[in-house]
């Protein structure tokens, strides 16, 4: 039986084909995102590396991965695109836990199907925002629409990673050490929360500028809530 890491060349070949042939990306950029050399991408495209195509399930997964990577690159998020590829490869070789998450099969599938439906909606919203941004003439309108595209794309990525975590059956809890790191960020976020832009004299500014500035306050409020939820019920890290 083929080991997961032995499939990497085939995965990279499929991904290179999609990104170059379907999405028209430069080979040098694809190489950077895939963490390989440009010559390796050339060999993948020529069929000299990567071997057979793979089963239908793998092809479908790479198609979805390529779409997410291409959207990140379109938004200028090249490093995030590279992280997306690496995360996909990492989850293939992650050890499977002895005690999978206790969710019955039908219940898990229902959750995953609902999440996948929402992910597709977020991806469509990102595509629409990018399309409208390219047609907008005002720099601020472009910025506002592009911000919405980035948000929708981030939402889709979060949902996708949650689906991967649920499929793997791994432990989704936060350990004490990581909880400490999150607590440190929570303290830092409280400083930003104390300097709300809504409390500065922005009422006389244009609606577009106010919307962009207030969106920062909204993000900070969201961060604070997220950190509190993530830390709820977490055990304290034992003292040294």
Overview of this protein structure:
With 240 residues, the protein is mainly α. The protein folds into three domains: 1-94, no CATH class; 109-172; 173-240. 71% of the residues lie in helices and 0% in strands. The protein is built from nine helices and no strands. Helix 1 (8-22) packs across helix 3, helix 2 crosses helix 5 and helix 4 packs antiparallel against helix 5 (78-93). The protein starts with 7 loop residues before the first helix and ends in a 9-residue tail after the last helix.
General form: globular
| Individual helix count | 9
End-to-end C-alpha gap: 45 Å
Oligomer: single chain
Helix content class: over 70%
Uncertain spans: none
Q: Structural class, from helix and strand content?
A: mainly alpha
Give the tally of β-strands: 0
Strand percentage lies at: under 5%
What's the structural domain tally?
A: 3
H and E string: HHHHHHHHH
The pLDDT mean sits at 82
Give a short account of the largest sheet.
Answer: none
Question: Secondary-structure blueprint of this entry?
Answer:
Layout: H1 8-22, H2 27-34, H3 38-46, H4 56-74, H5 78-93, H6 105-135, H7 139-168, H8 176-193, H9 207-231
Task: Provide a quick synopsis of the model.
By secondary structure, the chain is an all-alpha fold. The chain has helices spanning 8-22, 27-34, 38-46, 56-74, 78-93, 105-135, 139-168, 176-193, 207-231.
